[in-house]
Amino acid sequence: MTQYYLFVAMSIFLIILPGPDTGLVTQNTILHEKQGGMKTVFGILCGLSIHTLAAVLGISAILVKSAFLFSIFKYIGAIYLIYLGCVSLWSLRKKGKQTEDITVENKYQGASCFRQGFLTNLLNPKVAIFFLTFLPQFIQHNGNTFFQLFIMGMTYTVLTFLWFILYIYLINAIRTWMKKPSTERAIQGISGFVLLAFGIKLALEKRP
Predict the structure, then answer these.
(1) In whole angstroms, what is the distance from residue 166 CA to residue 15 CA?
(2) For 86-116, what is each residue's pLDDT tens digit?
(3) CA distance linking residue 62 with residue 60, whole number of Å
(4) Average of pLDDT values for 15-38?
(5) Would residue 146 count as lying in a domain?
(6) Which domain holds residue 196?
(7) Tally of domains within the chain
């Protein structure tokens, strides 16, 4: 149990570190309120769940060992992050349009929040590497490896959910201030550049 508690403590520390997920949740919560943030989080959780099952079944090990498959996932994931960053930055140019057009656009984007969170995680090979390198460090060799990996993966997913629930409520609490045109443009611009940076970083990532 000591190993498990250590795993939980390390997981919490890693989860709260800002990454592409944080950028997406922040942006979608500001644009689409709690509903948009929650849809993004559920997409992230689905992606994490698939990575957990892949790690348990050994599929992730195949992905990491195959340079070809790793490159495919890496570049698709990088392109998608860069695309999201460009969309975020490009939308700043549309702020002068009529409110009705913006409302229609936001409804469309709100429907894609789940997809954004899901694909950002699923297409990121670094998540697969994380599960294969981080989780095994806390395995007790006298226990069932399959069961331990599954429990730790699900624990990490639940902790991610709890953190983002707290984060969404925090963002939503100060949303009135963040919805000011100048603040919203600044945050959306920062989010766009952050997603672009993570996309470029992922594209340059080397296979371990």
Answers:
(1) 12
(2) 877 776 665 544 444 444 444 445 558 999 9
(3) 5
(4) 86
(5) yes
(6) 21-203
(7) 1
